[in-house]
Design a protein that fits this description.
The protein has 157 residues and is mainly β. The chain has one domain: Jelly Rolls. Strand 5 and strand 6 form a beta hairpin. The model has no long low-confidence stretch (mean pLDDT 95).
């Protein structure tokens, strides 16, 4: 029997397999798939993505958010969590959390030979920004709530 709102089967959602990162960063994360569960369920205060990260890919550049808390919960496979403290492996059933404004950047890397799936959960703050300690990249929300990526000096890619 098909599910009816407020329930849904994530497989019924079309995955987004794009990235708003400019090159040379976009090719480091793609291919990956994100299913926007929070959007599909009409959530406005929290964002929830079901993400599939392919072998050899990175979830993002190592970053931290200025105003958003973030939590990742691994459902399948394994990923390497990179932070200022170093690296550790997260496997199915484990999670990690990143408080808003904490400057310890984080990133997931799939070094295994199979896809990893995890939930990304965060509050939705329209004024959120992100900083990237390892690369020349800056992020903020632009006009029309569009993501804007620049170099740290503000110049375009």
């Amino acid at each position: 029997m098909p599910l009816k709102p407020p329930a849904l089967d994530p497989a019924s959602l079309s995955p987004r397999s794009s990235s708003s990162y400019p090159e040379p960063f976009r090719s480091r994360v793609l291919p990956r798939e994100k299913r926007a569960l929070g959007d599909a369920l009409g959530l406005t205060k929290i964002g929830v993505n079901l993400t599939t990260l392919m072998p050899g890919r990175e979830s993002s550049m190592r970053h931290f958010h200025t105003l958003e808390d973030e939590l990742v919960f691994v459902l399948e496979g394994e990923v390497v969590l990179r932070t200022d403290a170093g690296e550790q492996v997260l496997t199915a059933g484990t999670c990690a959390g990143f408080p808003a404004g904490a400057t310890d950047g984080h990133q997931l890397v799939n070094r295994s030979d199979r896809p990893a799936r995890y939930l990304e959960i965060s509050n939705r703050d329209p004024q959120d920004g992100a900083e990237y300690p390892d690369v020349d990249l800056a992020y903020h929300i632009g006009p029309g709530d569009t993501p804007v990526f620049t170099r740290k000096d503000g110049t375009s890619y």
